[in-house]
Amino acid sequence: MRIYGDSNSGNCLKVKWVCDKLAVLYEWIEIDTRKGETRTPQFLQMNGAGQVPTVAFDDGRTLAQSNAIIRYLARDSALIPGDAFTAAKMDEWLFWEQYSHEPYIAVCRFQLVYLGKDASELDPEKVKRGYAALDRMEQHLAANRFFAGDDVSLADVSLLAYTRVAHEGGFDLGRYAAIRRWIGEAETFLGLPKVR
What we know:
GO molecular function, one term: glutathione transferase activity
Helix content: 40-55%
Strand content: 5-15%
Organism: Bradyrhizobium canariense
Protein name: Glutathione S-transferase
Low-confidence stretches: none
Subunit structure: Homodimer.
Pfam family, one: GST_N_2
Structural class: alpha+beta
């Protein structure tokens, strides 16, 4: 199995983390999206959307979209709750992450870290909505250890990817004690180094 990914992308790292946690063998192929490497005819044949991560399986099939990939790779594992309703709650958070979290937290980070913008240049609406996402997470985690059930699930993996580096997008995690506690526990579970 080959994972085409950008090591700077939380969406790509989700796939790597799940594979590492579940001891799934893979070859990582680094793709530089800023150099147009997802726009080559060869890449577009694998993924017509021209996005990473993309996984190519040994039988020739390919799969894209980070949460779809991790959902497939983790099937029949403890990262997906056994209870159907709890698994659906996990999926609820997976969809929410891509619609209400990543477009704000990750985009602000990309603009500051990779485009070299100053925090004053960030779209105030993106910052506002990023903080709204963090507020929702904090509220949930103040009453729950993880996002779906009593153990780490794919919801935690997915939300961890950009939340743990939210400060790089100008977001202050200082007021989010429950999020900081959760980040530490999820990083430990996945065997990740602590983010500075």
